Amino acid sequence: MNDTRAKSIEVRIHEEYDHLPESERKLADAILDSPGDLSSYTATELTSLAGVSKAAGTRLFRRLGFASFDEAKQLARDRTHWGSPLYLERKNRKNVLPISDYLNEEASILKNSLMRLNAEDIDTVCEKIIAARRIFLLGYRNSNMLANYLRWQLLQFRGDVHLLPTGGETVGEFTADFLPDDLLIVFALRRRPIRLDAIMKAAKDKKIPILLFIDPTARGQPGLANWTFTIHVETSSSFDSLSGALSVARYIAIASLNRAGSRGRVHLEGIEHQHEVLGEFE
């Protein structure tokens, strides 16, 4: 895909906006008002909404570099699927749910995420978490918070658990040192940076086993992982929910601690003793 085709609809409009005739500008304004709605309109509906002719619509989309309205519509769908809050937003959507509806939605996300877990996969993953020489966790944007959370839990009962990269480091400084008896845990909920695929491929080349947390929109990444847990994130609002991912991560930490037995208990007691020695808590 060339650079022009990769640009979002709103970026293309802003680049051309000052040069648009009045009719095309009216249509452009309608699109900018709610880009996500573009994926649900027909060409006739969109131009009617803007109060312009279909000919004006055809001219605008061609000016923006699209072969047709359908091509622009597909790009809008892709952006929505990708998880862009701008495209998830809808002009007529009620974004603030009543608390009861919000609770029901969160409960559904938790249920759909947890009930997808496979008991055999959980057992295998927990064994690997305990046995791995080192564990590396990776996540960008919201997924970084999830990777951090799981790291904090695993550190309670085992050592050598690392978040990457941190503080000016590069990922390559870690992947170069990956070994088959290590473990890489990747949180890759939407929206995923492009570089993630390259990092996972580099890890696979080093033969390090990979545990992947993904949402249903993932394309390609699951094929690089040894174990994949699919998490539901989509809601009726503009922001994804991370409650399912957090709960699954917590469950895996609890199951791993239980499986670690006395070894994990000794490690946990050592940490608690150091907290007391250093006076770190009230």
Topology overview:
Elements: H1 3-6, H2 9-16, H3 22-33, H4 43-50, H5 54-63, H6 69-82, H7 85-88, H8 99-114, H9 119-131, E1 135-139, H10 142-154, E2 161-164, H11 172-175, E3 183-188, H12 195-205, E4 210-214, E5 227-230, H13 243-278
Parallel strand pairs: 1-2, 1-3, 3-4, 4-5
Helix pairs in contact: 3-4, 3-5, 8-13, 9-13, 10-13
How does this model look, in words?
By secondary structure, the chain is an alpha/beta fold. It has 13 helices and five strands. The chain has helices at residues 3-6, 9-16, 22-33, 43-50, 54-63, 69-82, 85-88, 99-114, 119-131, 142-154, 172-175, 195-205, 243-278; strands spanning 135-139, 161-164, 183-188, 210-214, 227-230. Strands 2-1-3-4-5 form a five-stranded parallel β-sheet, with helices on both faces. Helix 3 crosses helix 5 (54-63), helix 9 packs parallel to helix 13 and helix 10 packs across helix 13 (243-278). The protein is elongated, with a radius of gyration of 24 Å. Mean pLDDT is 84; it is low at 1-5.
Q: Short description, anyone?
A:
The chain is of the alpha/beta class. It is built from 13 helices and 5 strands. A 5-stranded parallel β-sheet has the order 2-1-3-4-5, with helices on both faces.
How far apart, in Å, are the first and last alpha carbons?
57 Å
Radius of gyration based on Cα positions: 24 Å
Rough outline: elongated
Biggest sheet, spatial arrangement of strands: 2-1-3-4-5
Describe the largest sheet.
Answer: 5 strands, parallel
Helix count, DSSP H or I runs of 4 or more residues: 13
Helix percent reads 40-55%
User: What value does the average pLDDT take?
Assistant: 84
Total beta strands: 5
